Amino acid sequence: MAFDPEAFIEKQVRLLRDEVGNEKAFAATSGGVDSTVSAMLAHKAIGNRAIVAFLDDGLMREGEPEDVVGRLKGIGLNAKLYKVQEPFFKALKGITDPEEKRKAFRRTFYDTLTRIAREEGAKYFIQGTIAADVVETKGGVKTQHNVLDQIGIETSKEYGFKFIEPLVELYKPEVRKVGERLGLPAEMCQRRAFPGPGLSLRVLGEATPERVAVVRRATKIVEDGTSDLSSFQAFAVLLSDKATGVEGGRRKFGDIMVIRAVDSEDAMTAKPTRIPWRRLEEIRDRILVELPSVVKVLYDLTPKPPSTIEYI
Ligand code: XMP
Fold first, then answer.
1. Measuring CA to CA, which residue among 169, 103, 162, 180 is closest to residue 133?
2. Could you tell me if 89 and 197 are in contact, meaning their C-beta atoms sit under 8 angstroms apart?
3. Residue 146 pLDDT more than 90?
């Protein structure tokens, strides 16, 4: 049976209204389509009693916190920006193992968000987990930051909140349809996916503020250089090894930056985008000029499977 976004919205709004009653709910959002659609459903159900929270955890892209909160307010949501970079870098300090990094992020994310939610007087916690997040986490591919109950973390016990996930049965294309039906502007509906743990997943090895700053600039360069291509995601990844370069006739060990761009429908499978060679050269040149620590720029040709889209 074809997916009916209208019926889905009606049902979820009714469920949210019944569940939350006259209480306040805290809707965590990253500005991505999943969490924005989930926050919109909450707002439709309970109006400004849905506090739409965006955490500036220091792992976002350039200008993203202000930009996202501005857009969320622009579509009528009761959006708030919380600046909380310190606990995240503290939690990530010294961690190099990918799964440990994901777990440290998740712990800090929920500790921080639920502390703020309590301070705001919310009783419910709404998030935009979708079916693909659950499938990949349960399948053991990786620990998605927003999958908890489904892997045995008892959210009520652990965090003292009832978690509500209105989109947990849907995949990305359906979420986009719901967003369109809710009147979410096209640029937000079609926005490229960006993972919750943000740039910490795009720095292999330790995610220090300095290394995150390098990958943040490279990400902007890759995004600028691919904005007219139909990639599902396009970004930069900083590897943990150093490579040999040359500067002023002398050997120099520098950073290795990967350009990753993929075409995909639902993130379950993906193929590398066929970026024109000339374009790749332009991106490479900007990276080398703007980031002098980089001595090698690579283009990742692997599809998912066997690779994944992210590196961690
Ligand atoms: P992978 O790397 O598994 O990624 O091929 C599939 C899709 O999921 C995104 N991703 C995440 N999104 N929290 C998120 O919100 C996460 O922990 C997470 N890990 C991966 C990734 O960007 C891609 O779109």
1. 169
2. no
3. no
Distance (Å, whole) CA 236 – CA 189: 22
The chain-wide mean pLDDT, for the chain, equals 94
Q: How far apart are the first and last CA of the chain?
A: 36
The C-alpha angle 132, 137, 140, rounded to 5 degrees, equals 125
Q: How far apart are CA 36 and CA 270, in angstroms?
A: 24
Instruction: For the chain, give the percent of residues with pLDDT over 90.
Output: 84
* Nearest atom, ligand 1, residue 270 CA: 5
In the three-class reduction of DSSP (H, G, I as helix; E, B as strand; rest coil), residue 194 is classed as: coil
Q: Is 142 in the pocket of ligand 1 (CB under 6 A)?
A: yes
Q: What's the burial of 222, exposed, middle or buried (CB within 10 Å: 0-12/13-18/19+)?
A: buried
Integer Cα distance of 308 and 91 in angstroms = 25
- pTM for this structure? 0.90
Report d(CA 18, CA 287) in Å as an integer. Answer: 51
Nearest alpha carbon to residue 179 among 268, 71, 50 = 71
- Looking from the CA of residue 145, the nearest atom of ligand 1 is 17
Can you read off the two tokens belonging to residue 128? 């935009």
